[in-house]
Q: What sequence folds into this?
């Protein structure tokens, strides 16, 4: 037993002596620094779990436990008091392994430059540069969105050209052609008209769309009465743009007047929380938080909510989540006390609220994908697949297997790998079935996975190829295939989630098979597309190898029928010429000089491929010095 194992055993023995009482526990490293703080309804049960089997821990917990030198605890009268104390201590000590959020939400301003050709933009601070600053506003995202909307509606330029210096120089940009810029660079608008557009944009930003619509409508009617039709048409276009913007905003509107929608997506070693804030039924703000390894999603949501609302004075009447959370009732009680009114914590399953949670989660997946070099669809598909299969984290590294044979002949298997939702072709492997005679897909799959795990034992130090265990194994088959392979994993002591991919009568993916049943995936579009792609790819790879071997066998059979050509010479010819077409196209001299060939054998091969050519011409004698 190693020193570390002895130390863990000692810590577990001490944890087993703790009382079954609510409280807070503090984990210390060798220097005495607090590295993790947690709460518990029963201290003995929670703390002892850390020093049990590592198989039950995610990577984050394993790392934390590896650095624990000792722990201490504080008893409380209730689990709620433990939660309040935990939040206070985490704020005070900022432990390394707790979820810590940086409250970098500063103020934002709307900046308006001086002069006849004014520009409107978003700024992080008010500088002494002669420009006018409107604000401050708490939400930087809201300011950026509003400024962007105003510039599009009133067709204000976003380029870096200077006016009037650059008028008439160069061609207008794409924004002019898609009717999002009035193109002062081409003299398409006068200075007075431009100034009016800027004033309208500022009225829109200060007063909102409803007030802006009323004012613009009155001015449009007045311009029409004065027969100023061009001006009336320009105002009409602005009103139409405001309406279109409003229609788009309805997509992210909520019937619940005030709420926060929070969603989590996880990747390989990274996680992302997205927060949508709704006020008066409209999305008014959003925040994105990137974190490292967060482990179990339910536990991660619990920790995040505690940290997030410890930093915020505003707590809405409802917090909507995209998935389960530990201690939901306790969190609702804590938030209610902080807000001074009832706060509900909900996890909707259907309807508008479920769609909002899904939209929030998709945005979190897109944000995380941008930081990991993946597309939002790939990140979303992996996250959705992980949730569907009940995995603690999205499966970043997936192996899939398929068997291919023809009435038991040329029995082979293919293994494909998908990393971060994309094929990793350098990790593909092919297997010839060695121990199974005849057509027995279950036994063949059993053999292949057993051989793969045997290679893992040899190469696990490398962490690459067979030396890396997958996060998920998918078999091209149903419950029977899963039942045949699961004992292999159990015997090896390897805990990798194992599922089958079930096809319908048209050979299309229908469901995911597991021991004891099936999981329908048709309604989970992203996961369905990913699994279908994996199933098609592993089938293509396995059947391609099978056809290749059959073709080689057919060629070898044809060569072996030639007098003077045995298995060794047939293999040598294929290795030398690479293809049967090259053998057919070779002249007699080339055949004679092939490795292992004699002139009589070469003549026989030549005649076999050229039966109508008559006697092959004798090769020219080599010149000798």
A:
């Amino acid at each position: 037993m190693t020193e570390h194992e002895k130390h863990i055993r000692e810590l577990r023995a001490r944890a087993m002596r703790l009382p079954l009482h609510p409280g807070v526990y503090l984990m210390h490293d060798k220097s005495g620094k607090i590295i993790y703080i947690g709460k518990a309804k029963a201290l003995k049960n929670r703390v002892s779990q850390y020093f049990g089997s590592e198989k039950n821990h995610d990577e984050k917990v394993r790392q934390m436990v590896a650095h624990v030198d000792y722990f201490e605890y504080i008893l409380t009268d209730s689990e709620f008091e433990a939660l309040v104390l935990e939040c206070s201590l985490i704020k005070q000590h900022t432990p390394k392994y707790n979820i810590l959020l940086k409250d970098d939400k500063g103020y934002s301003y709307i900046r308006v430059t001086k002069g006849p050709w004014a520009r409107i933009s978003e700024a992080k601070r008010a500088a002494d540069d002669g420009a006018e600053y409107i604000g401050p506003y708490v939400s930087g995202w809201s300011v950026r969105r509003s400024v962007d909307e105003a510039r599009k509606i009133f067709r204000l330029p976003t380029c870096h050209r200077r006016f009037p210096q650059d008028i008439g120089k160069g061609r207008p940009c794409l924004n002019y052609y898609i009717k999002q810029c009035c193109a002062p660079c081409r003299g398409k608008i006068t200075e007075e008209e431009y100034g009016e557009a800027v004033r309208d944009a500022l009225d829109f930003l200060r007063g909102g769309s409803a007030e802006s619509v009323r004012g613009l409508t009155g001015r449009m009617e007045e311009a029409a009465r004065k027969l100023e039709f061009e001006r009336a048409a320009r105002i009409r276009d602005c009103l139409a743009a405001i309406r279109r913007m409003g229609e788009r905003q309805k997509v992210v509107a909520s019937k619940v007047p005030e709420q926060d929608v929070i969603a989590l997506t996880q990747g390989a070693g990274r996680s992302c929380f997205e927060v949508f804030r709704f006020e008066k039924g409209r999305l008014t703000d959003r925040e994105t938080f990137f974190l490292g390894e967060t482990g179990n999603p339910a536990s991660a949501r619990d920790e995040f909510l505690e940290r997030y609302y410890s930093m915020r004075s505003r707590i809405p009447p409802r917090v909507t989540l995209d998935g389960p959370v530990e201690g939901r009732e306790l969190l609702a009680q804590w938030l209610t006390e902080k807000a001074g009114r009832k706060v509900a914590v909900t996890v909707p399953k259907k309807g508008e609220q479920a769609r909002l949670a899904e939209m929030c989660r998709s945005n979190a997946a897109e944000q995380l994908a941008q930081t990991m070099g993946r597309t939002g669809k790939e990140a979303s598909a992996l996250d959705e697949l992980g949730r569907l299969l009940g995995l603690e984290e999205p499966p970043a590294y997936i192996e899939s297997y398929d068997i291919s044979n023809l009435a038991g002949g040329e029995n082979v298997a293919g293994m494909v790998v998908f990393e971060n939702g994309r094929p990793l072709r350098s990790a593909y492997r092919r297997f010839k079935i060695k121990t199974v005679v005849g057509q027995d897909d279950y036994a063949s799959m059993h053999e292949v996975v057993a051989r793969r795990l045997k290679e893992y034992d040899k190469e696990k130090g490398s962490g690459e190829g067979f030396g890396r265990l997958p996060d998920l194994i998918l078999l091209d088959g149903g419950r029977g295939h899963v039942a045949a392979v699961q004992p292999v994993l159990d015997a090896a002591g390897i805990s990798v989630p194992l599922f089958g991919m079930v096809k319908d009568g048209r050979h299309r993916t229908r469901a995911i098979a597991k021991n004891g049943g099936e999981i329908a995936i048709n309604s989970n579009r992203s996961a369905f597309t990913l699994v279908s792609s994996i199933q098609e790819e592993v089938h293509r790879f396995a059947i391609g190898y099978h056809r290749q071997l059959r073709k080689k066998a057919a060629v070898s059979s044809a060569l072996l029928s030639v007098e003077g050509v045995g298995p060794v010479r047939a293999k040598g010819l294929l290795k030398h010429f690479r293809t049967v077409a090259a053998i057919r196209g070779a002249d007699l001299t080339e055949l004679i000089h092939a490795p292992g060939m004699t002139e009589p054998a070469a003549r026989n091969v030549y005649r076999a491929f050229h039966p109508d050519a008559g006697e092959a011409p004798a090769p020219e004698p080599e010149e000798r010095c």
